[in-house]
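About this split. The held-out portion is used to measure sequence recovery: a designer receives only the structure tokens and must propose an amino acid at every position. Recovery is the fraction of positions where the proposal matches the reference. Here is one held-out target exactly as it appears in the evaluation file.
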């Protein structure tokens, strides 16, 4: 009998050699295979890819054996592949779904298991519940075919996903003006799957791309984890100044998230980046369409929605909520607080590569530096927005703490009047300035997250501290 495997906001993650073992990867794959068979996908193809973490390629091969053992076939990427390209390959190759062996931005001790449906997007919460229910208690109940046999008879086919994805990108964005612009672009790939992509896409012109952290190193030196936020990106910000670069582009471990630094070596937080990307699509490219945002991202999107006459949909945190809503509404853009952004015309999946290219295109089309682009955005939405977040461990029963938050019923937070409580995912207190405080629990660990956005830069810490008080942390 093995332990119960639970899916969090984006799949299952665990500590390598503790709970993340070959046995548990095989069990989880069996749950996914059983779900696909229930969905009528017998005999169809599944794309399997992986990142550069310890043994990821071997875990991917183990998953492939189980998929074949269940009567389906596998397209296996021929090397470490960015998550958005794995998702695109599902659609491009008309597969029924995907398995991605990655722990994304987690610490080096971890690995993970993401699943996708036929759209290339995240499987909705109902589907994830079915997958969990189908995971057998024992590896003895897992069906497998030996890798060598499956590859020999064509049930596992290795492929290079890059050419089709690059051709697809060229339908979404004209790369030539970026190549010709003469920019100096600093790229930090965080030892992950994004390595080599921006130099490859932008070679052959006046623009210079300088990469750092572009080798495989599963210990992720110079950072706590490959997550594109401070302090992990501080070496990249320093390199931006040292090389007099125009912008810093950061992709996380599996290249589905984007971080941005300006020409002065200052971080542009991910809520502001989301505002910039939406503004770019609406104003510079003249697109119109729905915007999908999680509760934990910026209110600037609501203002842009009103200004440009486009609907804005708010979901719970995680692309398991964002992706289905994007598919339902044919949304122009979807995103979340963690730096993940998805776009119409692409798959409903976070794409750090495309998001980075769009940021560069924004700079080229306007002739402006990142700081100047932010000024454009703030002028449009009526002023600056400020954001921060605190993660805190907690003990005791979660339900008791949730009741404590409800009972607190604060009239003001950080000196600002509370105008509304939203409980789609956690507890979001809307504030009189158009800002908010969100208190929610991690889906995978005993961590309570307190986030806020406000128009008052001097109130950020007061709002967060009041949030900790409401949550009973202090």
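Reference sequence for scoring:
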């Amino acid at each position: 009998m093995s332990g119960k495997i639970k899916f969090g906001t984006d799949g299952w993650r665990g500590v390598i050699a503790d709970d993340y073992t070959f046995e548990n990867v095989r069990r989880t794959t069996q749950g996914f295979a059983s779900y696909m068979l229930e969905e009528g996908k017998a005999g169809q193809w599944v794309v399997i890819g992986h990142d550069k973490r310890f043994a990821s390629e071997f875990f991917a091969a183990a998953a492939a054996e189980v998929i074949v053992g269940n009567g389906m076939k596998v397209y296996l990427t021929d090397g470490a592949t960015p998550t958005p390209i794995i998702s695109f390959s599902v659609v491009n190759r008309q597969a029924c779904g995907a398995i991605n062996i990655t722990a994304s931005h987690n610490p080096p001790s971890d690995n993970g298991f993401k699943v996708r449906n036929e759209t290339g997007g995240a499987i909705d919460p109902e589907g994830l519940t079915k997958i969990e229910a189908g995971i057998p208690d024992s590896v003895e109940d897992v069906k497998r075919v030996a890798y060598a046999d499956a590859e020999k008879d064509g049930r596992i086919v290795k492929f290079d996903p890059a050419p089709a994805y690059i051709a697809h990108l060229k339908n979404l964005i004209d790369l030539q003006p970026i190549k010709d612009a003469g920019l100096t672009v600093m790229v930090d790939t965080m030892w992950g799957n994004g390595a080599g992509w921006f130099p490859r896409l932008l070679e052959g012109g006046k623009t210079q791309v300088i990469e750092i952290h572009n080798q495989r190193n599963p210990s992720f030196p110079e950072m706590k984890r490959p997550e594109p936020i401070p302090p992990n990106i501080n070496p990249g910000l320093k390199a931006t100044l040292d090389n007099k670069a125009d912008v810093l582009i950061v992709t996380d471990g599996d290249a589905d998230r984007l971080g941005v630094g300006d020409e002065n070596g200052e971080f542009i937080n991910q809520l502001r980046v989301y505002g910039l990307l939406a503004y770019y699509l609406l104003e510079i490219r003249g697109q119109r369409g729905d915007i999908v945002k999680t509760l934990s991202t910026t209110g600037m999107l609501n203002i842009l929605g009103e200004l440009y006459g486009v609907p804005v949909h708010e979901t719970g945190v995680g692309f398991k909520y964002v992706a289905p809503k994007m598919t339902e509404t044919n949304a122009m853009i979807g995103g979340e607080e963690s730096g993940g952004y998805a776009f119409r015309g692409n798959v409903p999946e976070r794409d750090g590569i495309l998001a980075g290219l769009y940021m560069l295109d924004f700079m080229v089309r306007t002739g402006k530096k990142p700081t100047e682009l932010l000024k454009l955005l703030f002028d449009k939405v009526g002023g600056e927005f400020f954001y921060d977040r605190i993660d805190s461990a907690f003990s005791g029963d979660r339900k008791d703490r949730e009741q404590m938050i409800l009972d607190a019923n604060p009239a003001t937070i950080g000196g600002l009047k509370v105008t509304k409580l939203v409980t789609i995912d956690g507890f979001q207190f809307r504030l009189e300035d158009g800002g908010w405080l969100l208190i929610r629990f991690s889906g995978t660990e005993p961590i309570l997250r307190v986030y806020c956005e406000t128009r008052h830069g001097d109130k950020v810490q007061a709002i967060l501290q009041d949030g900790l008080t409401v949550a009973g942390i202090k």
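Annotator remark: The chain has three domains: 12-161, 173-381, 386-470.
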